């Protein structure tokens, strides 16, 4: 919220990660630690549950969650069985319109109103590993900057959206994110 120091919104992405094999890393755990010291809105494009397994709660999964099933008829979500089928009946409405709770290409990402608002009300907007290729996620940094929010971009290398960040930090997320979180906590 405006005026509250150290309020941050963070968006993360990492294409190509295999959710079943991956484990939370130092960056996931650092962000969970930050939530104990700042008002943190954690927005991810990832459909895995690595942030949750790293200790974060209330994560906004703008592209959905691999571990959920979604009823296309009534919008009910429930923990996905290992194998789900369109013919599985919805636990809420009993209709058979089950689909993975995943945002496909061409569909609008989830909770965008809430996301735009969180971004423009933050003191700091930090984006981890965004390619700058997938909209509307790529537009968040630009939006934050226009609203006068301090923007931080972490990447392995200069990205297509680098110009939208006031501060750019290059390096592996597992190193630079914990360092950044530690510096924020030390300053709080
Ligand atoms: Zn239903």
What do you see in this structure?
Mean pLDDT is 85; it is low at 1-7 and 13-19. The longest helix is centred in the last third of the chain and has 15 residues, at 173-187. Helix content is 24%, strand content 23%. It has a 6-stranded parallel β-sheet with strand order 3-2-1-7-8-9, with helices on both faces. Strands 5-4-6 form a 3-stranded antiparallel β-sheet, with no helix packed on it. The chain is built from 5 helices and 9 strands. α1 (26-34) packs parallel to α5. The chain starts with 7 loop residues before the first strand and ends with a helix. The protein is α/β, with parallel strands linked by helices and 188 residues long. It has 2 domains: 8-63 and 106-187, TPP-binding domain (Rossmann fold, 3-Layer(aba) Sandwich), CATH 3.40.50.1220; 67-101, no CATH class. The radius of gyration is 17 Å and the shape is globular. Bound molecules: zinc ion (ZN).
Largest sheet: 6 strands, parallel
Any idea what the radius of gyration is?
A: 17 Å
Q: What overall form do the CA principal axes indicate?
A: globular
Strand line-up across the major sheet: 3-2-1-7-8-9
Q: Quick one: CATH superfamily of the largest domain?
A: TPP-binding domain
> How far is it from the N-terminal to the C-terminal residue, by CA?
16 Å
- Tally of discrete structural domains: 2
The first-level CATH class of the largest domain is given as Alpha Beta
% residues in beta strands: 15-25%
CATH topology of the largest domain: Rossmann fold
Oligomer class: single chain
